[in-house]
Amino acid sequence: ISDQKPLGCWSLKHGQVLTCPVVCNFETHEYIAVHDDKVLRIWKNEDINLDKAFKATLSADVYRIHSLPEAGPVVLFRGGGVRTLDVLLEAPQQEIENVISDEVIRWSAAFMEGQQPVLIFTTEKDGDFFVYVQKLKLSSLHKYKLEQQESSKPLCFTAHITNQTVTLLCLYSNDSVYQVLIPLQQDTEEEEEEEVLPKSLVLNFSVPGTVLKGTSLVVLDKDHVAVLGSLAVPGKEPRECLSIWNTKFQTLQTSKELPLGTSGQLWCYEEKFFLIHGKVLTVIMYKCETSSLAAAVGKLKDSQNLDVSSFVNWNTLEDEKLVVSLQSQESVALKAESKMNLRSRKSTVAKVQSETLSVGQLLLNLKDASTYVLETELRQLMSKAPTPDLQATIGCVVTALTDRCKRNPKYYPQNFLLEIVETRDLSYSLCPDLMAVALEKKDMHLLQICLERFPDIPEEIIYACLKAFLSISEAHLQNIDVNLDSVICYIDVEFDDKEVKTEIVENGFSAEMDQDMCDTKIPKETQSRSDGESCPVGLQKAALLNAVLHSAYTETFLLPHLKNLPAQQAILFLRYLYYLYVKCSEKVNTTLPGIRSPTINQIMDWMCLLLDAHFTVMVMLPEAKELLSNLHKFVRAQVRFYSELNKIEGSLRELQRLNHLRESQTYSIEVLEII
């Protein structure tokens, strides 16, 4: 999520359907999925084809798989039977008992109580709700019945275990949360009649003038819950929101509207909320402090314990909504919020503790300050002792600078921005406007540094940089300071900027051999330009293009942008990639010298990507025909060369074995016949 890059994607065959959420086995680092109710699939990150992954067909339909860090995955079947994954894999077709007969499972969860895995699930039958508690190691199963509530029914459940007691929280349709306590210290024998569990009211979501219709509920700690739902106000459209409540004092701690709508689902993991907001994945970090009545009602007087969270929403900089502070002294604070669009941008928010002002408030105060005062204060802010929030603070500093650049076109602190990017561990998501401003100012050096250092640049920005690098003139680049470390070791340049060609044949390739093998003659006047022997771009442009080649990207998202690249620029870029390909092939280890030089894999990937995006156009253009022909000939020569090497691979291994068997101490000449 932090780098906004998909790490893996696996697809089922047409007609197959995933029927329960995929989980990760913490012990083996494998993924576990079930499709078509009974077919179990297990695979690892490096596996590409899901159809070739481990497959086991089970004898009963699976409801959920729960993964426990210390106990391994647990499989819950629709009939209420439970098996650990290890036991299930020993005999996939083993018979699974039907525990719940006509009941339908509505919710399930797994926990660790000491060393004991505990599975809890709720069922429904004819309007009645039941709770099952299964202790796996003891093979004990207890069934309970929930006390009925007039004219309302449970919508969702959540639970936690404390001191051998399961606390089950039920969100009912009457806008209330009820609590049910289930002791775990029971006899191992099953009860003949299910016990009716009484419930107690914990929360009522009716705030004066509004009613919260909850759709999802999660437990934060023993005194706090989070609710995702819609806020109904008389005479107005319902508005979806995320709210945090204190169950101990039944108070609303804080809430945030979600105007783009949600899927109705809320997940919580390692002090972070995950929810779908519109078309983006929203991640909200939170922190629970010790609950107290003074904090719950906003009467905490001790300023040292004042829990203030600063929200810095960089999407609304131009609207002068830099900081939104929640100063209600609540014990639960949204420590930082970051909305992550998986393909474009992530807004980062920091909670920076200062004696007087938060970072957001300080930046607001400096908004109209002079350039000297602004840069001096920002340097002081960055020079503070390292803190966990320092990186986010520096991101705020860069954003403040770029915001001023957008408001004042004459202002552009190039050296200050370069200093920050070169000396600080930043990312695109911390300062999403920086590269856009650099593109507008045509600051090629800053763009080069960002491409080399930022791990999470969106494909749209990578394409914009590539287009800018290809369109800028060589004459203009001569006056720009560009880092040449990636090209200076393999492009030799004379004083008239003409490349000094050195004939090196180390990898079985030369122009003459290629021409002989392909039985094609290329005119000498065009050969040096198009067969990859001379660099088609200058040093500065080559260094900038190398920075693009080093950027991380996802082919699916970059390809649509590459198709918009003008044909002439695409041909120039392909010529340069072809040049690099030839240079790499001249070396035995297919590695270019220099610092941050492109690798053979990066070159090949970009060549394939560019050809995929522009193949039809290039075939139609006369000026690209010769380039494609030479590229085809070169690749064919390489394939033939490695094919010949493969033919004598066995003989070479035999020679190596013979040399190990006899170690001659005297001079000798041996003639070995290779058949």
From TrEMBL:
Keywords: Activator, Nucleus, rRNA processing, Transcription, Transcription regulation. Residues 1-287 form the Nucleolar protein 11 N-terminal domain. Its main location: nucleus. GO terms for biological process: maturation of SSU-rRNA. It is found in: Nucleus, Nucleolus. Residues 361-673 form the Nucleolar protein 11 C-terminal domain. GO terms for cellular component: nucleolus. GO terms for molecular function: RNA binding. The keyword rRNA processing applies. InterPro entries: NOL11, Nol11_C, NOL11_N. The keyword Transcription applies. This is NOL11 protein. It comes from Platysteira castanea.
